[in-house]
């Protein structure tokens, strides 16, 4: 009888709650629309100002960032008052304590975000990778406040108020788990098929990354594959990685075959293994127009004109960075096509084929031609040399 009474009372509460009319959610409305740029690997960069600085700054738009940040050199240049803290930031390349710039405002075209606390990081390496000054990263502090549409057909960003959103009829919705960072289940198939959790990371200029621990424990990769030694760049500096492919990666209902994949020895456990296995990056995600709706726990995926773009399987083993107007070859991986061709660390890259623009993004794009000999004009010890490099391919 006691159990029956409790159940009856519980049902009464449900009926009473259902009898109350809940207010309909307001419809999301467009606040502003402005362009974004894309750098190597599809990384999105927007221009914005903070209230203490009159100049426009460049920010990477990054769902893989749990807050918002500024470059330490930018803070020093503009004499911004930062406060040391005991807060530890965990990112690719390691952990370190950070200072903060408290209670600032970010001014995007047609939109101002107030009461922001920027953590401070050194982004000089990222600036060297892209050949443009990277002043900061915009992450969760932005996405939690708005619905954000990323249109890769038009390179336009639209920002909406939170509320009911009319998604396009085409495409589909995924529902990641969002605890500052979105985590989505995806299916990987190579030697075997496995579903696992991966970060949804628009700030990672790659297609797919798995941690070494995940690949070893899951035994997901074909044994006959021979990953290529590579180098990537993270928050803490340069990172040794391996490059391979997986036969299939499925995100929601969408399937991609022979996806370039990085294997990363995640000593700081940024990928949160065993809860997560790695991340899906922007070079795959840019194949959709995205509507990121953290408030509803939803991301809408709409295949766009880039959906069937071929993947880049090439590699040279050359690490090049733009510093003070010059592009240096700083790293040459042992056994790589670059080393076999005779490129040396310390070489200055003057041109690629007939391109003498001194634009590192253009040079990197030219070096993505597989099985084609590419002529590098380098300066070594004050002398110009022409070196022919034939990029390798992992597929």
Output the CATH homologous superfamily of the largest domain: Acid Proteases
Total helical segments: 8
CATH fold call of the largest domain = Cathepsin D, subunit A, domain 1
Biggest sheet, spatial arrangement of strands: 1-11-10-21-22-12
CATH architecture of the largest domain: Beta Barrel
Mean pLDDT: 91
Structural class: mainly beta
Residue runs with pLDDT of under 50 for 5 or more positions: 1-19
Write the layout of secondary structure elements.
Elements (H helix, E strand, L loop, with lengths): L1 H18 L10 E6 L1 E2 L5 E7 L6 E5 L6 E4 H6 L5 E9 L2 E15 L2 E11 L2 H7 L5 E3 L1 H4 L3 E5 L4 E5 L11 E3 L2 E3 L1 E9 L3 E9 L6 E4 H7 L9 E7 L2 E15 L2 E11 L13 E4 H4 L2 E6 L4 E6 L10 E2 L2 E6 L2 E7 L4 H5 L6 E5 L7 H7 L7 E7 L2 E7 L2 E2 L2
Parallel strand pairs: 4-9, 5-8, 15-20, 16-19
Antiparallel strand pairs: 1-11, 2-3, 3-4, 3-7, 5-9, 6-7, 7-8, 10-11, 10-21, 12-22, 13-14, 14-15, 14-18, 16-20, 17-18, 18-19, 21-22, 23-29, 24-25, 26-27, 27-28
